[in-house]
Amino acid sequence: MNNQAIHSSESVHVLPLRVYYEDTDAAGIVYYANYLKFAERGRSELMRKIGVESKQLIADHGVQLVVKNCQIEYFRPARLDDLIEVHTRVVKVGGASMTGEQRVLRGAEELVRIDILIACYGNNGKTARMPGELRSKLKNIMFNKIE
Fold first, then answer.
1. In angstroms, rounded to a whole number, what is the distance separating the alpha carbons of residues 109 and 107?
2. pTM as predicted
3. Closest alpha carbon to 47 in 62, 65, 60
4. Could you tell me the CA-to-CA distances from 108 to 19, 20, 86 in Å, in that order?
5. Which of 138, 97, 93 is nearest to 121 (CA)?
6. In the annotation, is 25 catalytic?
7. Which domains does the chain have, with CATH numbers?
8. DSSP characters for 32-79?
9. Which residue from 92, 98, 135, 143 has the least number of CB within 10 angstroms?
10. Mind listing the pLDDT tens digit for each residue in 94-136?
């Protein structure tokens, strides 16, 4: 996957968050696994922004999107009360999967980089083709403004 940082552009969804006490360890530093929770929120909000709800995918199409692979690199810690942003970008869309890049930033400072592969699975637990409308929406946000 691409090792270049995401730059602000129209195809990046930005989710602002504040670091709360529950996100940190005893030293007031964000616990490493919580960045995965922040990233999940970023992806979920991106999907909502384009009109895709997880429960509707299951109800209407019998499929769900699941994390198949995730690579995370930590650069600097976020701390209690920090204002951070999760930047999410769709990089590639395939027939049954999508690749994304996520960055957690504090201002202009990159704290964490996450490269992620999301796969589409059917109710039978096997890989399934992504519904055409979803694939189209994801391809559209790769190159166009997210409003």
1. 6
2. 0.89
3. 65
4. 17, 20, 12
5. 97
6. yes
7. 13-143 (3.10.129.10)
8. TTHHHHHHHHHHHHHHHHTT--HHHHHHHHSEEEEEEEEEEEE-S--B
9. 143
10. 999 999 999 999 999 999 999 999 999 999 999 999 999 999 9
State the chain's maximal CA–CA distance in angstroms.
47
Name 79's Cβ contacts closer than 8 Å, sequence gap at least 6.
Answer: 19, 24, 28, 29, 30
User: Could you identify the residue written with the tokens 């979920």?
Assistant: 44
Which long-range contacts does 5-10 make (Cβ < 8 Å, 24+ apart)? 5/103, 5/110, 5/113, 6/87, 6/89, 6/101, 6/102, 6/103, 8/87, 9/89, 10/144, 10/145, 10/146
Instruction: List the catalytic residue out of 25, 60, 81, 115.
Output: 25
CB 5 within 8 A of CB 110: yes
Summarize pLDDT for 12-70 with one digit per residue, the tens: 999 999 999 999 999 999 999 999 999 999 999 999 999 999 999 999 999 999 999 99
As given in the structure block, the two tokens for residue 144 are 């166009």
